[in-house]
Amino acid sequence: MADVKKHDTPMVDDLKSGPWPSFADDIEQKGLNGKQACLDLLGQLELSYKHKETHWKHGGIVGVFGYGGGVIGRYSDSPEQFPAIAHFHTVRVNQPASKFYTSAFLRKLCEIWDHRGSGMTNFHGSTGDMVLLGTTTDQLEPIFFDLTHQMGADLGGSGSNLRTPSCCVGKARCEWACIDTQDICYNLTMTYQDELHRPAFPYKFKFKVSGCPNDCVAAIARSDCAIIGTWRDDIRIDQEAVKAYVGGELKPNAGAHSDRDWGPFDIQKEVIDLCPANCMWMEDGELKIDNRECTRCMHCINVMPEALRPGTDTGATILVGAKAPILEGAQLATLAIPFIKLNKDDDYENLKDFVDKCWDWWMEEGKNRERFGELIQRQSLQEFIRRAELKPIPQMVKEPRSNPYVFWSEDEVPGGWKRDVKEFRARHAA
Amino acid sequence: MAVDKEELKQKILEFATKKAAHKSKMYIKDLYKADPNASPREVKKAANELVKEGKLEYFSSGSTVMYGVPGFGKGVEEAFEEE
Fold first, then answer.
1. Which of A56, A358, A368, A371 to mutate to test the interface with B (most CBs of B within 10 A)?
2. Are A69 and B60 in contact (CB under 8 A)?
3. Which fold has domain A241-309?
4. Are A10-150 and A166-232+315-412 in the same CATH fold?
5. Most buried of the four, A219, A240, A310, A313, by CB within 10 Å?
6. Cross-chain residue pair A59–B76, CB shorter than 8 Å
7. CATH architecture of A10-150
8. Could you state, in order of their start, the residue ranges of all structural domains in chain A?
9. Each residue of B18-70: pLDDT tens digit?
10. To the nearest whole angstrom, how far is the Cα of A200 from the nearest Cα of chain B?
11. b/e map of A390-423 (b: 16 or more CB within 10 Å)?
């Protein structure tokens, strides 16, 4: 028998009137089918709309034994009014690399969650985890037991821990993948289990792995350490296929824009003129590329996938320090290593050496709740380069004579120099 | 130089218990002060072992994890106030 709606929710109900399916509908259906927590959740949401402030309290000592992450305590601040969500903890579950599932796995997960939680999920959270929304403290250990023993799954990261690493579909489905993103993601997850489950850092730290510079997981914008597949030899060109694109036999962008007539394909206008490095031209009916100038933007490859392919000498570019705008502002990643070979046989040792150096510095010098990128900003890129034992490269210099990155220290210059700061300040205010 | 883990755990516990009397939740960086000779990794490992032993406890906001001493407790809002 279906339950009846518990709370009057006119503002929430209004969300159902739009053209798209609404979460309000889904949650209400779940509630009317027996999950009181869903009905109370909508009631509290209505109250939040009315008061224009949240009625959730978050944080606490809840978790599973031995883990310092994976569970986020959440409580209603109006438990008398909404008793079924008095405790409404979130559980993060580490997703499989590239988010490939069997239907049996998903069915089992839903069964567990229907039995022990609200039945509501979020697939997936922005870090990539499967997010199970809403359960009570007494259910946490049984959920953890079922996940680990029945499903072979584990909790994801939260708090001042390494967050669940995530990756694009990689070589499983994408011809452009220059690295085995799934293997790297899984390897990092298993290597850093302690950092993933127990707090280690001043704040969160995210790895994201993209197979090519298209960067489908937006690692460059969202991760403290972005591992992005690239190549260092030449783009492979099939001149016959180039001619087929020019002649109209092959559809540009694999037909992705064929829902309207854009006119005949113009390689000059649509590819060559849009190359940010101006390193392409046509010569005697053939496409030429000055690969030394190529910045790996992927545009030409995206437009003509049958004619152009990434090179075969593949590896990754490592960037660090991206973050969303919670403290300070949003920040894109900074290039750390333009090209690194990633070798499964040596367990990605060179990558992990680099990561360990970054973490040593951050754990030592990072302030509470300071992301890695903010530490670089505060202490300078030069200090980061020194601590990560990297060699400064021209790409780190913004422009000649005014770069904010690389400064000589006295012992690096023959003869050194004497500097009187007081005398300097007499002429230049601080 | 690596420090003795049991000795470090004792120092952390003493430091945390003393501090908990007036501030019940601590960042991992606060615990570094328990033994300036220990490396951040050593402190992290020792503190996490103390949690397993039930002598310290985690307090997580979801975005940050702090350490507390069981029995010393304040509300969520107070614990996350800036230092």
1. A368
2. yes
3. Alpha-Beta Plaits (3.30.70)
4. no
5. A219
6. yes
7. 2-Layer Sandwich (3.30)
8. 10-150, 166-232+315-412, 241-309
9. 998 888 889 999 999 999 999 999 999 999 999 999 999 999 888 889 999 98
10. 6
11. beeeeebeeeeeeeeeeeeeeeeeeeeeeeeeee
